[in-house]
Amino acid sequence: MSKINILYVEDEPFLAKIVVESLQSRDFEVQLVTDGDRVISAFERLHPDLCVLDVMLPNRDGFSLGKEIRERDPHMPILFLTAKNQTQDVVQGFASGGNDYLKKPFSMEELILRIQNLLGLMKGKTGVPQVDEEIVLGQYQFWPQKLELCHGETVRKLSHRETELLLILSRHRNVKVERKTILREVWGDDSFFNSRNLDVYITKLRDYFREDQGVEIVTLKGVGYRFVVS
Questions:
Q1: Confidence class for position 140, pLDDT limits 50, 70, 90
Q2: Of 7, 16, 90, 176, whose CB has the highest number of CB atoms within 10 Å?
Q3: Given the DSSP bridges, would you call strands 5-9 and 50-54 parallel, antiparallel or unpaired?
């Protein structure tokens, strides 16, 4: 069985050494890149199974790299590592194509679990349910298997998590869906970190539907959401 190939981008030598050795000891194949300018060429050469990107890098930042990688491969799992922890940084990370976000300092156990979780999602172990047909949401067309949300001629590529979240909301349209239900179905638990992630994704989905005032994600304070489609 072939090893999982990880493209790891980090310019701190000490941290990079620890992470590379830890991943290799768990039978991952790891390619370390230390310069932002060399990441895309390495990505094209390696065709990795997953990318772990530091945000602060020489020459190019991890967010811009994540966005370019996402454009080249819409299904590539991307995990950002960063010392930043402000809400706007989390939002920027997911807007740049990230599937997950881990704040420094972190434990190797948590990094491994997050990597395994992303790989599981992308291989369909806990991924997007098989829904082949179009789902009409007001003026929008949602294609879960294509990971696409269409409005007229505009086609927006969605991440796996965005697709899973929108599927749950679509199946509960115009009725209450509890926040803890969403967290457990999409993230696997309702921890504080995942709860913040959910806030980010809800903000993004609201922005995606801004062209149709008949589609709204209503917050039910202390309870959850109601996805209103008129």
A1: very high
A2: 7
A3: parallel
Cis peptide before 105 (omega within 30 of 0): yes
Domain 135-229, architecture per CATH:
Orthogonal Bundle (1.10)
Beta-bridge partner residues of 79: 52, 100
Q: What is the pTM of this model?
A: 0.56
Q: Spell out the domain ranges in the chain.
A: 5-122, 135-229
d(CA 197, CA 151): 25
Provide the CB-side half-sphere exposure for 69 (13 A, CA). Answer: 39
DSSP 173: B
Which CATH number is associated with domain 5-122?
3.40.50.2300
Per residue in 153-207, pLDDT tens? 999 988 878 888 998 899 888 889 999 888 888 877 777 777 888 899 999 999 9
- Residue among 112, 92, 100 at smallest CA distance from 76: 100
pLDDT of 183 reads: 87
